[in-house]
Amino acid sequence: MITKSESNISNIKIELHSHKNEIKVISNKRFFKTNPGEYGEDDKFIGVSVPIIRKIAAKYKNVKLQYLKELIYSEIHEERFLALVILVIKFRNASNNKEPIYNFYLDHINQINNWDLVDISAKEIIGYYLYYNEGLQDLLLKLANSKNLWHRRIAIISTFYFIKKGYYKKTLNLAKLLINDKQDLIHKAIGWMLREIGKKDLEILKSFLNENIKKMPRTMLRYAIEKFDEDSRNFYMNIK
How far apart are CA 52 and CA 81, in angstroms? Predict the structure, then answer.
């Protein structure tokens, strides 16, 4: 007997695939670096836009976690993206018990395997949950020390929630830990988080720059100072 949730998964896939766009597939493959040896190697796309995915997620937000697993293990990028958008909606709406959704995320963390999948979900689920569960915050360090690129990005992006709450220590500590990371996607993520700190407290950002600028990769620095005025950007970019 097919349950309603199981049939919903079929309906979700049918609806999602009805919006396929072959032209967008080509641009997505290039944008998400799917060539051999690139970070998104062999990822498969059907070319559905994010606004459409979000609309479908809102429609099917009540699908049960056990059936959502089928989407998150899909080889189709947009199906995994959709699973995570639904998961974020569920997490926001779970006012009493968010733990099962947090655990689901960790249980299937290896399926969160491209930068957009990390960025739509890490701060919303991991960041939120760890901020309010201080005893679990060592997870950030564990993820940051992982050999898995996406785990490291999850660690730093998760601290975005801490930044929004005015707590910068976790971000700054991870930034120092990962400052010599070899992956450009980590440099960009750290620079982005430093920029967000600067929006709230410019002096803290400048203090970090003054202490660490000679060790910072150029991409990280450019992202961090993106909102500075031209003179200030030139000043920091010209420090040897």
Answer: 11
Q: Taking the mean position of all CA atoms in its chain, how far away is CA 75?
A: 18
Measured N-to-C along each axis, helices 77-93 and 4-17 cross at an angle, to the nearest 10 degrees, of 130
CB atoms within 10 A of CB 149: 18
Cβ(191)–Cβ(221) under 8 Å? Answer: yes
**pLDDT tens for each residue of 76-112:** 999 999 999 999 999 999 988 999 999 999 999 999 9
Contact 90, 58 (CB under 8 A): no
Distances (CA, A) of 2 to 7, 61, 91, 140, 164: 7, 19, 26, 40, 43
**Which residue has 């709450």 as its token pair?**
165
Instruction: Write phi, then psi, for 76 (nearest 5 degrees).
Output: -85, 120
User: How many CB atoms sit inside 10 A of residue 233's CB?
Assistant: 15
Q: Can you tell me the distance from the alpha carbon of 107 to that of 27, in angstroms, rounded to the nearest whole number?
A: 31
Q: Does residue 53 or residue 2 have the better pLDDT?
A: 53
Q: Give the count of beta carbons closer than 10 Å to the beta carbon of residue 196.
A: 18
- Range from 7-21, 51-65, 69-83 carrying the lowest mean pLDDT: 7-21
Whole-model pTM: value is: 0.94
Residue 117 structure tokens: 């999948």
> 6: pLDDT confidence band, cut at 50, 70 and 90?
very low
